Amino acid sequence: MTGILAPTKQLTAADRCDRCGAQAYIRATLPAGGELLFCAHHGRQHVAVLRDKGADIQDESARLSDTSATAKDNER
After folding, report:
1. Is 55 part of any domain?
2. Mean pLDDT throughout 36-60?
3. Is 14 within the bounds of a domain?
4. In angstroms, how far is the first alpha carbon of the chain from the final one?
5. pLDDT digits (tens, 9 = 90+) for 11-47
6. Which of 9, 15, 59, 73 is the most exposed place for a label (fewest CB within 10 A)?
7. Is residue 50 part of a domain?
């Protein structure tokens, strides 16, 4: 094992929050394996603790305010 993380795929409209089912914008990859997906709201609630516990965080919540990304998402 090299310690280098494999690139993660961009979250899509099909990825849903594990807490409420809304579109996921945050992925937490857990150190023991597995991942959790969160909407921006639930991600803000949980990301600090998950990061402290060693999770790798992929945060795409900036796409919510990026109008060009929103247009691309709507085309899918």
Report:
1. yes
2. 97
3. no
4. 36
5. 999 999 999 999 999 999 999 999 999 999 999 999 9
6. 9
7. yes
Mean pLDDT computed over 1-9: 58
pTM over 0.70: yes
DSSP type of residue 66: -
Q: Which domain holds residue 60?
A: 26-71
Q: From CA 33, how far away is CA 65, in angstroms rounded?
A: 31
Contact 17, 24 (CB under 8 A): yes
How many domains in the chain?
Answer: 1
63: number of CA atoms within 13 Å, CB side? 20
